[in-house]
Amino acid sequence: MKGRKPVNMKKVIIDNIIYESVTDASRNLSVCPATVIFRIKSKSNNFKSYNYVE
Questions:
Q1: Cys-Cys link to 39, which of 7, 45, 49, 50 (CB 3.0-4.6 A)?
Q2: Would you list the DSSP string of 29-43?
Q3: CA–CA separation, 23 vs 5, rounded Å?
C-alpha cells in the first residue's frame, strides 16, 4: 500500500490554489490538518477562501 493515495482523499482549494488533500495543504501552509478542516467547515467570513473542490 506504500505510495498509494487513499480513496477517501478530497481536493482542497485555498486562495485559488488547489491542493491534493487536507494534509498537503496543511504542510504547505505550516498548520495542523485539523486547523485546515476547521477553517473549511467554519461559517465565519474570515475563511471564505477555504473550500473542498467538487
A1: 50
A2: HTS-HHHHHHHHH--
A3: 12
Question: For 15-43, how does the pLDDT look when each residue is reduced to its tens digit (9 = 90+)?
Answer: 999 999 999 999 999 999 999 999 999 98
> Taking the CB of residue 11, how many other CB atoms lie within 10 A of it?
15
pTM: 0.85
- For residue 37, what is the DSSP state? H
Neighbours of 15 (CB within 10 A): 7
Q: Which residue has the cell 482549494?
A: 13
Residue 39 contacts residue 25 (beta carbons within 8 Å): no
CA trace torsion 34, 31, 54, 16 (10° rounding): 160
d(CA 52, CA 11): 6
